[in-house]
Design brief:
The chain is of the alpha/beta class and about 425 residues long. It contains 15 helices and 15 strands.
């Protein structure tokens, strides 16, 4: 599988213009700085246009052919660029083509869930070299961290690299990461995961280049690059499963908000709460999550007397099979999710709403939510079921890690 990443800030054309402007503004800079700026510009053009000849590089970058030649030679020497064959069948001499060397850097993505740990390693061009998952065997946070490191070791071995060659590690986690304190808050479904020593332990094992990001936000990035969000400027990714969360992509960029808590819709004051939903539970898990997450669907089904209601999947299956009580529970779930979505749609007016998670991907659920939104709003967005499956968060980790690794590579020029 190939994970393609899109520059979240600007298209490739604007990147080249920005690079040309930067190069021209450095006329008074020293030769070493000018060489670094030229190499960075050439590297960016190769990334967006590969495979590409030196003549084409000169035209796209605005640099002279000799300057491009010097830059390409330096990039090849540093292991960032390699020859990719010859262009033939055109007038004149055959031209050597250049592309990014995949081994110039590697990215590790890890998805930390309550029941499963998932991960993947991709090279700097986005090709996935290893992918795997393990069911969580221990509840204690120390063991969870050890299992995560063991998964990283397995992936590195499968990819045929040492962990020291990882240019970037991105960890997807429930909750909101506080960079000042170095912890995740509130990691409701992962007991102990919010402790301050967790990130320190992971950095000691996996290196200092670790970024922690909300898992649903990362799934939204994967949707932007690989799923229904491709070519869509503004959309919402809503995950309904063990928990409830939303990832917001606005004008092609992931929107985090001031505290990094944008999309924490679990705290929306929506939902007729049952007697087991105390004020403390609502504050910890949020009113919407307490009323509409997978566990709440099961509780509602059991109260309604739905036979065999052991999971949200079994409740939806019973509804599809014609059980009236199960159908009523599913209809109530549709209304809760639609109300939560409508409250966000009315503010940001997205083009698209994508549903993921175990409940969100249930057969017929997206269509039902779409129908409910049509009744609530005069400007309802299109509603689709995510096709990315269980690897959405991991693929989002790789997409973010690729961009961060590229920034680090470019920053070294």
């Amino acid at each position: 599988m190939t994970v393609t990443t899109r520059n979240a800030a600007t298209p490739a054309t604007k990147d080249r213009l920005d690079g040309r402007e930067a190069a021209s503004s450095g006329r008074g800079a020293g030769p070493q700085l000018m060489r670094a700026m030229n190499e960075r510009l050439v590297l960016e053009v190769i990334r967006s246009e590969q495979p590409v000849s030196r003549a084409h590089l000169a035209r796209l970058s605005g640099l002279s052919k000799p300057t491009v030649g010097v830059a390409v030679s330096a990039l090849k020497r540093d292991g960032l660029v390699r020859a990719a064959g010859m262009r033939t069948g055109m007038r004149g001499r055959a031209a050597e083509l250049y592309e990014i060397r995949p081994e110039a850097g590697f990215v590790l993505g890890l998805d930390v869930g309550r029941e499963y740990l998932r991960g993947a390693i991709a090279d700097i061009t986005g090709d996935v070299r290893a992918r795997g998952a393990h069911r969580v065997r221990a509840a204690r946070v120390e063991r969870r961290v050890a299992e995560l490191v063991a998964l990283a070791d397995e992936l590195a071995e499968e990819a045929g690299i040492r962990r020291s060659r990882l240019a970037q590690v991105v960890i997807g986690s429930p909750g909101v990461f506080d960079p000042e304190r170095g912890l995740v808050i509130p990691a409701r479904n992962l007991p102990g995961w919010g402790r301050s020593d967790v990130l320190h332990t992971l950095k000691e094992a996996l290196g200092r280049s670790i970024v922690v990001e909300n898992d649903v936000s990362l799934a939204a990035l994967a949707e932007r690059d690989l799923g229904h969000g491709r070519g869509v400027g503004t959309f919402c990714f809503v995950s309904v499963g063990t928990g409830i969360g939303m990832g917001l992509v606005i004008d092609g960029r992931l929107h985090r908000g001031f505290h990094g808590a944008a999309g924490e819709i679990s705290y929306l004051p929506i939902g007729a709460l049952g007697p087991e939903s105390s004020a403390a539970r609502v504050r910890r898990h949020g009113a919407l999550e307490s009323a509409a997450a997978a566990a709440a669907v099961v509780r509602a089904a059991r109260r309604a007397g739905v036979p065999g209601a052991g999971s949200s999947r079994s409740v939806f299956a019973a509804a599809q099979a014609g059980d009236a009580a199960a159908r009523a529970v599913v209809d109530a779930e549709v209304q809760l999710v639609a109300k939560a979505a409508a409250s966000v749609v009315a503010v940001i007016d997205p083009e698209l709403l994508v549903l993921g998670g175990g409940v969100g991907r249930a057969p017929g659920f997206a269509a039902a939510v779409a129908g409910a939104l049509e009744e609530m709003l005069p400007f309802a967005p299109e509603v689709l079921t995510s096709a990315l499956g269980d690897d959405a968060v991991t693929d989002g980790c790789l997409a973010m890690g690729n961009e961060l690794a590229w920034r680090r590579l470019l920053g070294r020029r």
